[in-house]
User: Fold this.
Amino acid sequence: MTWHGTSPAFGLVSTLTVSMDETQDVRQVPISMVMNRASRQKRLYQSLSTLVNASQNMLGFIMASGEGEIIGVESAANTYEVLYPDKSVMVRANHYLTERFKPLDLFAKYWSDSYLRYHRLKVLIEKDRGKITPELMMEKLANHMNHPKSICAHPDPDSAFPPSQTLASIIMVPEKRVVYIANGNPCETEYVAYHPDP
Assistant:
C-alpha cells in the first residue's frame, strides 16, 4: 500500500496467471521491478499506466484506492485487458477472466482449483456484501472448502505437481491506511495490523 502526503492511499496486489504462445517475448522487465515502480506512483491512474505499459505476460493485478476506486489488469500475449468491479467487488484467483486470454491459459489447465477458489470467494463475499470488515475477510480467507486446494491452501499429497500452499494472507484497507498480514496459512496464523509510515 502506498500514499504520498495528502494523496489518497491505494493498494496493489498481483496474482500469477500463466500464458504462452510462440509470439511472446519473455525477456521483459522483472515483475518485481514493475510492481515497485507502480507502487511508488502518487496517484492510482499513474500506477495503472505503469502496469499497462509493462508488457507483462503472466500476471493479473488489482488496485484499490482509499477513495473507493477498484480496477484490475490482466496481461497475456504481449497485451493487456482492463477489468472493472462488479458492484464494487473484484475477485481474482490464478486463471484468466478475459475471454480472449482464456485459450492461452496454461495455469488453469494444470491447476483447475483456481476456478473453485475464485467461485468460493465470490460466494462468501456476496453473502456479506455491504458488510465486509477486515475480520470477516480474515474468516473468508481461512476457508477450507475443497481442502487442501482451498482458499486457504495446504499441500496436496496426491498432487502430480510440486507442493504449494498459502504462504501469506494479506488484507489491505486503503481508506484506513492499514494492512493486515498473516505470515502463513490464515487458519494457523494470526493477522497482525501493519500501519506503514507515510
Observations:
- Residues 3 and 198 are 7 Å apart (CA to CA).
